[in-house]
Every structure is written in C-alpha cells, then in structure tokens.
Design brief:
By secondary structure, the protein is an all-alpha fold. The protein is built from nine helices and no strands. The longest helix is centred in the N-terminal third of the chain and has 27 residues, at about 50-75.
Amino acid sequence: MPDVKHFDPDAVLEQVERLFWRRGAASTGIAEVVAATGLSRSSLYATFGGKQELYVKALRRYVDQRSQPIFQALADDGRGLAAIEDFFDRLIEARCAGEHARWGCMVSNAHADGGDPQVRRVLDQHQDRLRTAMRTALESGEPRPDLDLDAVAEMLTLLAYGVNLRSRAGADATGLRRGVSAALESLRNPENQR
C-alpha cells in the first residue's frame, strides 16, 4: 500500500521557494528547510529528493508562477516602450518595497549559487523568456529605427537582472529608476517625441 502524504506538496514547495528566494540555496541548510516546512527530512527526501532537487523544483516553480505571467503580460501589452517602462516601474517597486523587498529575484540570486546543470537550464530558459518578451514589446512600439532589437532586448534583460541584484544589496529605488529611465530614453524614436 502506498504511503499517504499528510501535506500538500505544492504548499510545501511554496514555503521552500520563499526560503531559498530570501536566503539563497548556498546559505540555506536542510535543517532550515525542515524547520520552515515542519516536515521530517525523510518526508522531504521521499517527496522532492535531496536539497539540490528541492531547490531546482522551487526555482522552476518561481519561474513558472511568478516570472512567466509577468513576461507574458509584457509581451501581450502592445504599448512598446511604455509597457517596458511599466515593467521596470513594477519591478523596482516590488524589489524595494513591500513583502519581498530586498529579496531580489530568485533567478538573479541563483546566478550566484553555482553552475549546477539543472539550475543553469532553468536560468537559461528564464533569460530566453524575458529576452523574448522584451523583444516582442519593442516590436509593438516605435523605438528608434536604427536599433538592433535583439541586442536591445538583451540589454534590457541584463538591466532587469541588474535591478534585481542592486535592490537586494539595498540600492535606492530613485537611483534605480534614474538608471532605467536613462536606458529607455536612449531607445526612443525622436520622431515620436514631437
């Protein structure tokens, strides 16, 4: 007879996601995971595998449930640079104020945690999705006609990672907004500003 689980695996994974997001994988021991979830090590291992497998599952959950809906909304917005500007405004607000202030982005934080191949695949997928959303948003607007949209989408993706990292380190929201505004201003089509 199979063992019956007396807990919701997705609710536990959400708790673990928040723990790894806030503290990072390298700084979080399995004893902290046990304490945060209230589960025994054997229940965690039987359901999710070891700490590394649990971390990868939590990272995938973060990408699928937190990042991807935002990327899809950006790609579907249709307002071009205005949508990208709103994306960055919301990002800075989320990273500098509220419940998750100074946590950074779990994905950005994961870049510093090492080169596990499974983690690297999740990070690469995240980067591709964000870059694609940025490119789609750029196409729907009217940026300067001389721009290489692939290169600009990559630059904006890297800018988002920079905002995430700097906010985790305590950067001021005003300074982050000034940097983002300067980057976006350089992309505007002068024909549309008349």
